Every structure is written in structure tokens, then in C-alpha cells.
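Hi there. Long-time user, first ticket. I'm pasting a complex I've been working with (about 550 residues overall). I'd like to know whether the download I got is complete or cut off, because the file seemed smaller than I expected. Thanks.
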Amino acid sequence: MGLELYLDLLSQPCRAVYIFAKKNGIPFELRIVDLIKGQHLSDAFAQVNPLKKVPALKDGDFTLTESVAILLYLTRKYKVPDYWYPQDLQARARVDEYLAWQHTTLRRSCLRALWHKVMFPVFLGEPVSPQTLAATLAELDVNLQLLEDKFLQNKAFLTGPHISLADLVAITELMHPVGAGCQVFESRPKLATWRQRVEAAVGEDLFREAHEVILKAKDFPPADPTIKQKLMPWVLAMIR
Amino acid sequence: MLSILYQPVEWPPPPPAGALPVFANQECRLVGRRAMKLGPEHCREGHRPWRAQRCPPTTHHAGFFPGQHLSDAFAQVNPLKKVPALKDGDFTLTESVAILLYLTRKYKVPDYWYPQDLQARARVDEYLAWQHTTLRRSCLRALWHKVMFPVFLGEPVSPQTLAATLAELDVNLQLLEDKFLQNKAFLTGPHISLADLVAITELMHPVGAGCQVFESRPKLATWRQRVEAAVGEDLFREAHEVILKAKDFPPADPTIKQKLMPWVLAMIRFSLLLVMYAVPKEKQHCQGHSLACAELHMKLETRDWGKMER
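Hi, the file is complete. Here it is re-exported in full:
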């Protein structure tokens, strides 16, 4: 059995792993784990990842979780082009810096934006107060500003003149609020042109394919009560 | 020249009137400890490691005087106003994981810290990624809810909020044991690695708050002993001197409190979100916790910090 990637393209970190593997021609078996059907909560999937989260990687007997760890594993094992995770000490440190920073900042905001704006009211049928939504979108705004001011600045990509893992992780996060209908790029021309560069570097077809699911998030039919009950504890823990 | 900024920019710092040394945060302890293991020659003259200085105890410890990280001077170093921060000539770096990896590569430390082996390294990466939103969060909140809010900042925390925070810590400690440590000597294998260093410094936060982290968890307790032995007990004790006195910090004066509050709230990130949709048991738990946090947050946010009660 070759490399297996357990993914759901609804999830931001899964999109980053998917794009990276495809872009670099890494052969893998795609194992879809449908989050909104609760498949990640099944006993079968718990055999793969007891933490019941995606993405997960299986390479023979070796199982790995955490998208950043998976991306780094693929980078090293498949000897991808240097720009993804440069050998240069300082350039690499910049990528590490972004990958560490984003966990508790941009990722959190993007996840909450999607769930507060769309998934709770539309999919789960649970209203979210305007105050809550406003606070979430304000937090997103702060993190988008940090992304521009602290990381992107006047560079072509987040950590230098070339695309890297940092850009891939960031862009897949930002497509979450885009999928929710948030105006992420419209009022931020710097980020908009950065997005175009990232899409061009990744390949527009691959980018579109990876984001097909999230861009339809607003159209998910409401969950039936059984599914809703099953998913609730997970959702609450996830968006904390 | 390399400077690890977990110390005040001016050294020794002139203590502001009425100020007290703030504990170095978890990340600073681990970066500081790594830097010190490299040896004092790696720190710039005037920024010597603590033990090379003969300073009175109150200024001897790493860390900033209250709010110093919020100053304009420090913003020149790190516009995000967070510690730790590293300066290596013109190169400035933030985020403790990034700093640790930079030091690991630049100074060619022993392999076990971040093994060359593909799978062993992946295990370290996995832990370093996982801990951001789990153990680190719980440990930080445990300290602030149990000690820093009530004792240092004089703001009561409801028993419900504290209980929920400690329950969350408990869940993450169990994951640490079951998912990571299991039956190994160290988190990712037979040798200490960056993962163990990051984890142990996090756990000393709730220990400093008086939580019984190790007493009821023999597996974690013996792991801790192994980590301390591998790091060196003197160095370990030195790095944790400040946090272990967190309970004894005198209350902050009103000016300091006013200065720190927005930063504390952002760091602990009380959520205004009242998420309360679940099966009844979880609903009550989440509702209670979120409500309590949100109430505390709103109370703190709407206080007029210019007119402090005395």
C-alpha cells in the first residue's frame, strides 16, 4: 500500500496538503473523510487517527497527523523544489515563523468566520447573534491586517520572492471566509494581487479543483437532526 | 551577534517605581534554556545569561517589567509586541518554534533535539504543531484563571470558569499521555527532543499556579524527571524560578493593571461568542463556560480603567 491521504476538502489544512501533493506530483491514494456526514467521528477512522481529525497521512505503518507536519514530511521525502521550504537558514526561518503564528490567529479567525456566518445558521440551523458575528469578523480583520503588514509587506510572497509552504497554508485558510461570502480580498488590493500570484504559481485548475467544495459551503442543505446531534460536540470543540 | 530577547533591552534595567519582575512566559523559558545550553558566548555582551550576572533577585530573572513588551522600544524589535524574539545581526525572528528550529540548525546541536530521521523528525513536527491550540492554550488559561487574574490583577474568576479551564487542561494532559508519550521514555522516542522541551515548559505554568499536574499522573511525573535530568536540574530550576513564584506576586498597581489588561484579554482571548448548541450536557457545560468567560470579558472591557477603585 502506498501513501494514503485522508482528507476532506471542506477543511482548510486538507486543501493545503492536497494542493501540495498534487502540485509536486506525489503519488497518493485519496481517502475522503466526509466531515459533514461525521465520518471523521467513526470507529473506522479512529483506527487511522485516534484524534479523529483530518488531514491524516498513512505511509505504510507510519501514520501522521497535523497538516504542518504532513507538509514538512512530504517536502523532505519527495524532495520537492527548494522554494517550498528553502534550505537557506533565514528564508526557512521565515516559513517556520508563519507556520507557527497562523495556528492561533488566522486559522482560528477563518474557521470561526465560516462557522458563524454560514455553517451554524445555514447548515446547523442555529442562529448566531449579530454581536458574535461582528466580533468574529473584526478578529478576522485584525489578522488579515497582520498578514499584510507583518508577513506580506511589499514582497511578492509571504516570505520572499517565491511561493512557499507559508503561502499555501495562508491562501487555503483565506478561502474559508471567501466561501462564507466574506469580502476578504475586495478591500485589500495587496492581498488580492498576492492571491493571483499564488494561484498562478499553484496552477489555476488545481486551485479551482481544491476549492470547489468550500465555494459551495453556502449551498449545503440543512443537516438532519441525527447528523446535527452527532456533529455538535465536535463543532463546539473545534471552534472554541 | 545573536541576542535572545527574553530580557529587557537595557540591562540591568532600572526598575520603575513600584514595579515587580514579571515572570518569563513559557516560550521564553524554553528558548532561554536552549540558548543557555549553547553557552554564554552566544549571548551579546550586556545581555548575559542570568547566572553570569550578580544582580539582586528581583532583577535577576529574565522577563520584562510589567508592560515592557508593550513599549515602543520593544516594538522596534518585535512589532507584534510578543516574547520571545531573536535578533541575529539584522535578522529578527519571532515565534518560539521558529526560534528553536533556527538555533537548532545554525548551531548544529545534537541530532536528538530534531532528528534527521524522516519519521522521527515528523513526530517532533507533529507535536510542535499540535500543542499551539491545545496544551499551550490550557496551560496559559490555567495560570491566568487560577492565579494571575484573582491575585495579580485583583479580578475574581468564577468557580465555573476555573473548573472548565482545569477540565480542558485535564483533557489535554490525557492526550499528551495517550497520544504522544504512551510507553516511550520521551514524547517522540527514546531521546529528549524539542517536543519534550516545549511540553515541559508549558506544564510548569499550571504547576506554578498550584495545579496538581504530576501528582495524579505517575507516567507524566517520571517523564518529567527524565526531561529534567536530560536538561540538567540546575538549568531547569533556574528557568522555572520565576513561574514557581507566580502565586506570590503582589497585586499590580492600578496603572500597570490598566496597561496590561487589553494585552491579557487578547492573549487569553475570552470569547464573546456564546456557543451553546449541543446535547444538554455539553450545552450546559459550554454555555456555562462561555457565558462565564464572556461575562468576565465584558465586565473587564467595559470598565473605565482611568478610574480605578482603590
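A couple of notes from our side: The beta strands of chain A are 3-7, 29-32, 56-59, 62-65. The interface with chain B takes residues 50-51, 62, 64-69, 72-73, 76-77, 89-90, 92-94, 96-97, 99-101, 103-104, 108, 112, 116, 120, 124, 126, 129, 131-132, 135-136, 146, 149-150, 229, 232-233, 236, 239-240 of chain A (CB under 8 Å).
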